[in-house]
């Protein structure tokens, strides 16, 4: 009797595992199919309709393409790109809000007085679109946020980031080189008033 229960449990576990694998395969195939359909729609639209081609060209090549927004919509309706999680799935160690003593205007953005070697969190989720040196600002990381705003975090030593990494809100971007953090907010090439975003 004991062997029968054990065998029944093993069979049930194998069936459950097989069912999960089938769901992952179907989920992946659905995502691939939707991506192909969208690609074909854009391809046919650009070949057949000149107005559609003009709109597509304008939004893809002329204006700032919103990768972070597209990524957020994709995750919301289709889930993660991969049908399984890779690596450790634990809660993030660093999840903070931006804190500072004083904010004042500086060129196209603002300068915040923060503590020495301040650990800089992201203001909003988004994709890393630039890591490098900006004149008058120093080492800079630009995050294209899911709300369409590009935020520059300057005068920092970046954390272990790569181009096109998706960064969650409150995640660590880097550490300030002293007690100053420069922030710039930009949308479609125009600089925005910092008071509305910090």
Features:
three-stranded antiparallel sheet; eight-stranded antiparallel sheet; single chain; 198 residues; 11 strands; 36% helix; 2 domains; alpha+beta; Glucose Permease (Domain IIA)
List how many beta strands DSSP finds.
11
Shape: flat
CATH architecture of the largest domain: Distorted Sandwich
At the fourth level of CATH, the homologous superfamily of the largest domain is Glucose Permease (Domain IIA)
Write a concise synopsis of the structure shown.
This protein folds into 2 domains: 2-63; 102-196, Glucose Permease (Domain IIA) (Distorted Sandwich).
Give a structural overview:
The structure is a single chain. This protein has 198 residues and is α+β, with helices and mostly antiparallel strands. It has two domains: 2-63; 102-196, Glucose Permease (Domain IIA). Strand 1 (102-106) and strand 2 form a beta hairpin. The chain has three helices and eleven strands, in the order αααβββββββββββ. The N and C termini lie far apart (67 Å).
């Amino acid at each position: 009797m004991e062997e029968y229960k054990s065998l029944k449990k093993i069979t049930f576990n194998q069936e459950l595992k097989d069912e999960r694998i089938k769901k992952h395969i179907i989920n992946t195939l659905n995502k691939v199919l939707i991506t192909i359909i969208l690609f074909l729609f854009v391809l046919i639209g650009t070949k057949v309709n000149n107005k559609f081609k003009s709109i597509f060209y304008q939004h893809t090549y002329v204006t700032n393409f919103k990768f972070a927004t597209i990524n957020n919509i994709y995750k919301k309706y289709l889930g993660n790109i991969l049908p399984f999680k890779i690596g450790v799935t634990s809660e993030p160690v660093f999840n903070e809000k931006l804190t500072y003593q004083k904010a004042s205007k500086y060129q196209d953005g603002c300068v915040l007085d923060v503590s020495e070697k301040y650990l800089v969190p992201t203001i909003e989720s988004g994709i890393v679109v630039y890591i490098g040196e900006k004149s008058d600002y120093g080492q800079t990381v630009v995050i294209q946020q899911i709300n369409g705003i590009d935020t520059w975090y300057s005068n920092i030593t970046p954390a272990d980031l790569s181009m096109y990494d998706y960064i969650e809100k409150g995640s660590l971007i880097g550490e300030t080189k002293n007690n100053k953090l420069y922030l710039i907010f930009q949308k479609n090439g125009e600089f925005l008033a910092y008071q509305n975003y910090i």
